[in-house]
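Issue 218. Parser rejects a valid record. Input:
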Amino acid sequence: MRNALCVFGIPIDQVTTEEAAERVIEWIKTHQSDQNTKNIATINLDFISNVYPLWGLTSHNPELLKILRMSKLNTVDGMPLVWLSWLLGNPLEERVTGVDMCLFLFQLLAKNDQSIFFLGGFQPEVEKAAKILRKNYSGLKIAGIECPIISMESGALVQAEEQDCLLAEKINAARPDFLIISLGNPKQELWFYRMAHRLHCPAAIGLGGTYLMISGAITRAPEWMRNWGLEWVWRLFQDPKHLWKRYLLCFLKYMVHSIPLVLYHRLNSLIYRSHENHVLRPLLFLSKNRSITAIRLPRVLDKRNAEVIASYWDEALSGDLLLILVG
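Output the parser choked on:
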């Protein structure tokens, strides 16, 4: 069962950076039995902004919303979404950025002499990033680099299909273990979704301009700024001309959609606490042959009550008990 928090209709998995990387390694190990290419999306406010309009709950990009819901693994790549999970009473363990997850993953891939493939981005910077990775991660192989101009506009899709098929053939011929798609959101997610059936690599991730951080073209914010959710300030200072409108729109959409969600959650919690909903009490009866456990169900089932039910359930199943649920 997928352990995820659903935010704005998008599942975000409860994983740490290390767990996300280890899951990719597991996909690589089991790829022979499962030929599907599994994808990772790093969810941040830019994703939310690209899915929903400023006003209204109907997605203006239903294809992207569908892709994110079908993604094999979604990590939280934005502190505002981590804070929102706290306010909704189901806190995510930590922020899992694409660059942090991949840097940890590169260590694991290097140990097994496994390979990565770069698709998209600016050729000089991608090659520089690849050179740095070869130097820093002995054993990590660069299976290939392709930086074509990829069109996702509806009018150019027919002409682009042949090019995309050739790209998929090149990637498959290189046989990478991990595919890094650097086309920017939502272009990289749309491209993967439309070409996934032609790809044979075990796993893929959309990383936008992360290769620029690896190459040093863009410097990362200090760790304290990242921990306090201020990395956007650092990025904005580096490129204010291109980022200020994007960040402003992302922030406005986040506030417009998250405030009603938090208020609704808080109101529901207040109503819930005002009604009788005691902790479950097991009622034990002794028969001639065995014990009978009767669990009185509460009026409202929440996470805490579900955990209590599960503990009593396990206790009953581990012993020679009959279990009765009382409404």
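Fixed in the parser; the record now loads. Residues 282-326 form one domain.
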